[in-house]
Amino acid sequence: MARAMADTDGIFRLLHLPAGNYKVVAITGYNDVLMSKTLAVRNTDLLTTECDEFFLAQAKPKTSKKKYADTLLKQVVDSVVVYKKRREMAVFGSGRLLKVYHICLGFTPVGAKHFQGDGKTPEGHYTLSCKNPYSQYHKSLCISYPNKDDREFAHKAGKQPGGDVMIHGLPNGEGSRKDEYVADDWTWGCIALNDEEIDDLYAHVHERTPIMLLP
Fold first, then answer.
1. CATH number of the domain that 121 lies in?
2. Taking the model in full, what pTM does it have?
């Protein structure tokens, strides 16, 4: 929803935010989360912390499972927040929550992705960098992993960072088995929806949309 770099005094300034409760996540250059807390915003808030930048997402409200799959999007999505531990992905537009999806993650779901083949889903701030209507998994939205810091981290360890991290649907031809797939984390590090859900999201999101992936 919003992100900011510190000024010369170490102050983050966010102007003209709609009133409401927001989740503030402070991250370092290596996408390490230093702080995650809820912040009540009335107009303009200042925050001081030792980090490189922070990403602001509207705080997740309590949501019933009935809201997951049945409500179709009706407007453009302009930011996405993934809550890995909860297996939830919230999408926002014009400052408000539009929908929450249940998701499946990589087969090693705990921890941030660093290396090729580790089965982990990334954590940190990225963008949706491309759209692929001809995916082997129905449709897909590319996540901009690895970034420069990810590549440097892997290089220092003498490994490859991996790539091709997507939000995608089910394997082609498997759409009728969505209830079986939703019960487990089965991807190689991607975020999986069912085919109807990726169709819905794909139609309402643009390239370069920010996405924040939280532990």
1. 2.40.440.10
2. 0.70
